[in-house]
Amino acid sequence: MIKNDLYLRALKGESVERPPVWMMRQAGRYLPEFIALRDKYDFFTRCQTPELAAEITVQPIRRFPLDAAILFSDILVVPQAMGIDFKMKENVGPWLDNPIRTKEAVEQIQVPDVDESLSYVFDAITLTLEHLNNDIPLIGFAGSPWTILCYCVEGKGSKSFDIAKSFCFQQPEAAHQLLQKITDTTIAYLKRKVEKGVSAVQVFDSWGGMLSPEDYKEFSWKYINQIVEALSPVTEVVVFAKGCWYALEDMSNSKASALGVDWTVTPEIARKLTGNKITLQGNFDPARLHSSPETIRKMVHDMINRFGKDKYIANLGHGILPNIPVENAEAFIRAVVEWRP
Q: Mind listing the pLDDT tens digit for each residue in 123-171?
């Protein structure tokens, strides 16, 4: 049994004494101990070495009173497993020498045996659970099929993903074929994570907000919902779609346990759109962690009061920024832990 099950109770919509708290990208680049490992090992070496991934996952847990850990990994391990050779390029980010831009290229992509191609992730889960010693739950994650497609077609990060969108609109059949292959791989991957012991999974749709509401339904939500339908019988599923407040109502009618929201929507509107029937997670602006600890504390308490303590998980509205002072991240977490009705 997990000793602190606050996060899991909130996911199930149970009444809690206070909201649970964790931060997207909490195992990461704002921590000096993470930077020490980053300077020693390249990015995908850290992802692919179970001992390093487990160590990075528990670094913030040693420092802060967090209610959940999230496995250190990357959304691009899924396309890598499918034979799409992503690298992490210095000062550029994700990089693909040969982006996927034709039907022929899509047809050559295989849905892999995840046990073979992603065994290092499952080994990292086993090691991480040993470190956590049943103290708090471990979250597994994957990128949404649309977000993965964006990187596969664009070949790198982008402010607008115009090439990826053009591919979908000009070659919809190839786009849907690629999205389905990513979806099938992701379902197998997340199911195996659950079998290995994660307590919940989160789907990150970082680039969903690039699409219009209608295109979001066709090219993103349709595939996320397949993942939700496949995983919800075996675990709690959280969907975080950045910039997609317009889809909250549709998403709240799915089998997801919770929906992440970013800072561009108010708690009141998010509650209204979802009919207060599903747990919400978010939505502190990550840049606001540059405020003073006292201001952070006041803003966090205001955020909780507006969302309400039940059916709510305190988090950021996106990943923590690399230049946030450690004491400000701690102020955010402690503000939630110390909150009282």
A: 999 999 999 999 999 999 999 999 999 999 999 999 999 999 999 999 9
Mark whether 74 is an active-site residue.
Answer: yes
| Catalytic-labelled residue, pool 9, 25, 63, 306 | 25
Annotated catalytic residue within 7, 30, 46, 74? 74
pLDDT tens for each residue of 306-324:
999 999 999 999 999 999 9
| CB-based contact 150:210 (threshold 8 Å) | yes
Which strands form 279-284's sheet, in the order they lie side by side?
69-70, 138-143, 200-205, 236-241, 258-261, 279-284, 312-316
- 220: CB partners within 8 A, 6+ apart: 144, 145, 146, 205, 208, 211, 241
The answer to whether residue 151 is catalytic is yes
Residue 91 predicted with pLDDT over 90: no
d(CA 161, CA 175): 14
Which of the following is catalytic: 38, 63, 120, 135?
38
pLDDT score at 90? 86
Q: pTM of the predicted model, to two decimals? A: 0.98
Per the structure block, which two tokens stand in for 2?
């997990």
What confidence score (pLDDT) does residue 247 get? 98
Is residue 5 flagged as an active site residue? no
> Known catalytic residue: 29?
yes
CA 183-185-187 angle, to 5 degrees, is 70
User: Would you say residue 275 has pLDDT above 90?
Assistant: yes
Given the residues 7, 30, 151, 223, select the one marked as catalytic.
151
